[in-house]
Structures are given as structure tokens and as C-alpha cells.
Amino acid sequence: MNEPKTSNLGLNKIDRSSPSTTYFDLDKYLDQNWEKIDEGVGKVVEKAEETAAQVSSIQERLDIEKRRSVTLEPGLQVVHAERASAFKLEGLKGRTLVNLLGRDGGCESITGWTKSTSATIELSTANVNSGSNNFKVTQSEAAGQSYVRTPASATANVNPANYYIVLAWIKNETSQSFSARLVTADGTSAIIGAKSGTILAGATGLVWHAYRPTEMGSNTKADMDVYTAGSVAVGGVYYVDSFRIYEISAAEYAELDSMTPEQVAAKFPYIDSVQPVRNLYVIRYGNNLLPPFYEWALPTGAIINAPYNFTYHYASGTVAYNTVDLMTIPGQRYTLSVNNSVANARNVMNFYDANGTKIDGTTVSGTTTPVSAGVNTVTFQAPVRAETMRMYLYGNPSESGTASFSNPMLVIGNVAKPFKTREDAMLALQTDLFADPVTGTNADEVFEKDGTYFKLAKWKRVVLDENKAWLLQSSVAGYKILAIKSFPPTTNWNGFLLTKFNGNVLSSKESLTEGDKAHFNTASGYTDFYISIINTDSGWGDSYTPTADEIKAYFMGWTMFNGSAGNGVGNSPDAPANNVYNSIGTKWWARRSDGVTRTWADATITLPTTQAPNWTPYQLVYQLAMPTVEPVTSEGQLTLIEGDNQVEVGTGIVLREGVKPAQGSNGDWGINIVSSSVNAPLKNKVAQMMRIYRNSLADNDWSIVTRTDGSAYGNQRASTSNATYGLSASYSVTYLMLDSSPTVPFIGSVADNEKALLTDLTEVVQQSAARVSVTETSLNDAIRELLQQKNKRNVWGPIE
Description:
- By secondary structure, this protein is mostly beta strands.
- The protein has 6 helices and 50 strands.
- The strands form 10 sheets. Strands 27-28-38-31-32-33-34-30-29 form a 9-stranded mixed sheet. Strands 2, 4, 17, 26, 39 and 41 form a 6-stranded antiparallel sheet that branches. Strands 5, 8, 9, 11, 12 and 15 form a 6-stranded antiparallel sheet that branches.
């Protein structure tokens, strides 16, 4: 029979159902019951402790802020976040690279370059690694060794006690291996180092050669070439670009032993002359990596029904592609989903290497022919050498019909996700960040305070143009010494970097006993800057003293000469030879047609007062004795989404530069177009237009196209029809500059618990309230100023 027990703990009760069962068992009714009570209480205590621990954990997450350190390296990467959170910048330091070849290494002009006897050089826009051109070298006369060497005008000043690395890019279509090297300035012998990287036959990539002091000999000047000791057959072709010579530290020299060619190229990218970390940005791409269709290249007749839905007609035998290019991470897995309205439509993904060459055999299996209409999904992995991937959407080329594609979704990983529009987050900082070019010390730093970014500036960049108060200090045979007084002081007489109009890096000298030298005057406390200008550059003869305005003209790109010398016909600074002005004859001026070489244009007897076309002023970068704090122009805030994030770190962004579009003869309006009829260039050569704004709002009516035929200032231009153009609208452009600069990592943290998330939110609210308050105050001040002008004519009517 069932013995009675209590309902909760199951304690034994006396059974009083009959006299025979009514007795008191000490073990059963006391000992066993107490054991059950003790066990029950123990469970309660254990549960209470467990609950207390959970409560304590929650309390700790709400009371103690925890953050996780995150370093965002240059380039493209995947960053995992446990929860959606904002990135807080905690460290961003400058870096400076100095290309001892100046601007000549960009391979934009063949003037002055030398080559092996049987080779020919020509400019090419194919296979460009940097800038707009490269050199195509053809073995044209006889088989043999081949080289391309930097011009004498770019001979580098080197110190045999220092470390150096030389680098260049090559696309090698010959059957021989190629290398890079330093050669003596007279070209008679090579300088050999123990560390180098070569390119094999048929390959494309970086060639480099590094040197330690014991290998530099006694050389104080050197040139550079890309060469092969093998025999190149007649008709053999190779392309070269991006020559650079950098002084490096002993530590950097040692690090080369463990670096891949890709890492070496990333560490020492090509730059012109002297470049800091310029205009850094970091972009977190959206959960969906595919942009809306108005950012794709669509064929004529395609109709965009919605941002992620378009329809187009296709005809048998004619392939009309709808494409978009995306950056990719080698080895990364992606999942693609596309909704096709018809069966057998094509959703193709191809991959391309760093040179824009399609990687054979990498068309993603499963994307070429969807088996049915509806959503088609495929997972794939980017190949090892991939840098970009191109998405193609198009109809079956053997059929005719109408196809619609909608809700395309490309995500990181192996799992398809529900459709979302792409929503990127970006932090951009428009500033220059310098550091010591060899040691990396004394770096400029960016920091954030109350939602605003500032720079602790330890270096100052000065454009030495006509606006400076130039003084003539002295005239010496062959050159003149000019000065600018009262700069903010530097740290030493030689604590600077100076580039000439041709991009050459000029060296310092404590006593200016020759031309093309400079220093900060010691007696002035390093505030007065002195520079020696060679007479054949300026056109001022030994016996002539230039006026203040004539000095300004030189720094605007104009060279003086004697217009009456010789027969006075067709004169220039070089006709007759060394035609400087020596207070005899007639003063004339001419400009260098390309801003660099001694090919002259626009000769005039009138003193020029405007900067010559193609002229790049002298530029000075020097270390400040006392650092300053400067505000930084910024845009956006970087946030990470929960899960995997594809993040890009780069340089060269220009934020919302104002532009006045120009109208062409066909009625369309253009931006960054350079032609005889339309001239609307941006301030810098463009690598990529990121966004065009109309009255501060994104304007998707512009068609952005890539042009390398000289019709764009850089690589891209944009146009829109007269019907969509706003005559009274204000336009601006955010873009990436074509000129490259070194990159550095963003160091920061993200919230790792609820307290950190709440703190971030509170700070954002406080900063937003402060900005609104400042804006209101500024607006009230402006209105008050207008009201105080009530006695003046008000063309807008009364102010209420």
C-alpha cells in the first residue's frame, strides 16, 4: 500500500488508516525526514548561490565597463564582433616615406630614362601598377640582356653608412627572370646586396633588393634599374612601373627575412617624393556586400524597378552583362543568393588578381546556370591570388526574353542570410600624419575627445610658393640664397624634408656652398629657412639681383631669360645655351611645358603673376620644436555588426570636395572631365569616385565611368543629362586620390559588455546634444547679426 508523504519534500507521515499502522518509527519518521529536509535545504542554498552568481555577473556587466582591443590593419580583412557596437579609436600614428627618385619612378614620362642597346621603351596604359602609365619594354633588335634605368636627373643621394631598399613592379612576358638593383651613378657597375626578390619568367609582381652599410661601398650617389642577366629573345616584352628607393632602418632590413613579396610591397608601397599617411579611412561593409543596382554597370535598356530589382531584355546571340566589381579576401568563403525571374539565367562570379587579370579556372561552379527560377544560392571560396571579384547577371545567351533579378545577397561565410540592403559604416579623417621617415619616431597622432578628432602635430608641411615673404640673402657664383624668416621653430638646422618642383628630394647642408641645398639658420633659433636656387633654374645671372615680384614668379613656375640674346628669335632659357639674364638685354620669362623638363612654353615679356600650368611648388616638411593640437576634418562613425565584418583600411580619401560641373556640347554635364570643350577637374587626380552629392545629399543620377585616355583627370569621370542636372544646386564629390601614400593600422576597441555599450550610447547622446547646442548658438548669432543690419538694404525681405 502507498505510504503517506508530504507533497513538497516527500517526508514520511504516519499512516492512521488502521490501528495496526499507527506507530512511531524513529528512523522512518525522524532520521529519514531530517535527511530529506537537509537535502532540500542544500538544493535551495545551491540554487540561491547559482542565482546570486548570475545576478553578480549581470551586475558586473552593468557596473564595470569591459572593452575588447581591435587592430584594423591596412587593406581588406574580416573582423568578428560578438555584438553590434561602435569602434572607439585609441591609437593612430603617422608614417612618412621618402622616395629618393622623386616623381620619376612613377614611369609617367620616358624622358631621360636609359635602356639596354637592343631594347625600346614606350609609354603604355596597359597593365598599370600606379598612376596612369607604365613603360612597355620590347627587345627589338637582337637577343640579349635587358635593363631599364632611372634618369640621371633622378640620381639618388645615398649615405654608405645607411640601409636601403629598391623596389619596382614588373609584368614579365619574357622567358627570363628579372631583378632590381642599385647601380653606381656613372652606370659602370652594379651594387650587390645579399637580400633580394626576383620575378620568374611569365610572372607579374614585385622585384626588390635591400642593402646594408657594408654593401654600399663608398657610393654617395646611385641610380636604379630593373634588369635580367639572361638573354631576352627578339620580340620579348615586359612592363615596368613604380620604381622607388627608400632608406630603411636596421630593424626593417632584418624583418625582410620573414616577409612575403606581398608583405614587402604593402610595407613599402610606391609614392611620389615625400608622402605622409594622407587622409585615412576605414569602411565596414554591410551584411550584404552587394550594392544597389544603380551602382552597377547596366546595359542600355535595363530598367531599375527598385534599388535591388531590375529588368532587362536579352536577345539570342547577344550577351549584355550587368556587372559590379567588389574587393575580395583571398581564401575567404562567401555565399551568394539571387532571385531570378527565369530559369537558366546566369549569376556568374569571376576573380581577378592585383593586376586586373582574370584568374583562369575560377568562375564559381554553380553560378553559371541556375536550374530554375526563384532564389538560387551557392557558396564559394576566393582563390589565393584574388584581389577583386566581378559579379555578372545576364540572361541565357542562346535565348531571347526578359529577365528580372532581385534581392541579390552576398555574405561572408557558408550560410545564406535573409535579404538586407547594403549599409556601410565609414570613418574618414582628412589630415596628413608625418613621422621620421627612417625610425618612425616623433609621429603625428590622432586622438578623439568629446566626439571630435584632433591631431597632435609634431611636423609641419609648408608649400613654398609665391605667397611666402621671400628675401634675397646673397648671390654666389652659380646660385642665389633666398630666405623665409620667422617660421615656428624646428629642432635642428637639418630637421626637415624638402622637395623641388620636379619632385627631387634636396639634401640639407649646414653651409650653403652649392646650389639645391637648404638649412634652418642656427643663429635664428632654427626659425629662418634658407635655400640655394641654381641660376639655370631661375634664369637669374650672377650679376643680376631679382626683385621681390620676380622671385615670386620663379616660385610660380616661371624662368627668366634674355629675350635679346643671339638673334633674338625663338629665344628661351636654353636658346642660346645657358641664356640667363645678367642685366643686359630684355627680360623675358617662359614656363616648363610639363612643369619638370626644360621644354619651354608661353614665352612672355610681361612679368607673370599667375602659377604656370603643370607646376608643382617646392614643399617643405619640418619637425616642430613644440607640437601643436589641430582639429581634424572627419566624417562618419565606424560600427561593427554582430558576427563577421568585412573591413577595409586605406588612405587618400577626399571628403565632399566642392565642384562646379561643366556642360558639354551634347548638353550633358560633367565632373572631372578634361577636354577642349569641357574642363571640370577635381583638385587631385582621381582613382575612384565614391559618391556625388547634390545639396549635401547623395545623387545617384550621375554615371561614373573609368577612362585612361586622358579625358579624365586621373582614372574616372562622371556625367549626367541636362534633364537631371540642377542648375542652382550645389555639388560635391567624395573620392579616392590616384596618388598613393603609406598606410598604418587603426588601433582601438569595441564594447564587450552592456556597461560599455551604455557608456558609448550616453557619450553619443551627450556629444550630439553639445553639437546641437553649438549649432543653435551659431544660428542665433547669425540671425542677431542680420537683425543688427536693419538699416541696410535687405534683399530677402523682412526677418521675422
